[in-house]
Amino acid sequence: MEKAGIPILYIESDYSPSQQGQLSTRIEAFVESLKTRRRNKNR
């Protein structure tokens, strides 16, 4: 996927409640990077 230029998000966790904020932040940042990538392609 990386060679094809397809973004991926790899998350490894034991999914404990204490990591919820960190996981949420990482997912939000990934989604935002996808949005930015799409906007830049449409220029």
What does the model show?
The relative contact order is 0.15. It is elongated, with a radius of gyration of 13 Å. The protein has one helix spanning 20-41. The protein has 43 residues and is mainly alpha-helical.
Which features does this protein show?
single chain, 43 residues, mainly alpha, 1 helix, 51% helix, elongated, FldB/FldC_alpha/beta, 2-hydroxyacyl-CoA dehydratase
In short, what is this structure?
The chain is mainly α.
Summarize the helices and strands and which ones pair or pack:
Layout: H1 20-41
Give the helix tally.
1
- Report the order of strands and helices: H
Q: How many strands, which pairing sense, and closed or not: the largest β-sheet?
A: none
Assess the beta-strand content as a share of residues: under 5%
Structural class: mainly alpha
Percent range of helical residues: 40-55%
Low-confidence runs: none
Radius of gyration: 13 Å
Amino- and carboxy-terminal Cα gap = 24 Å
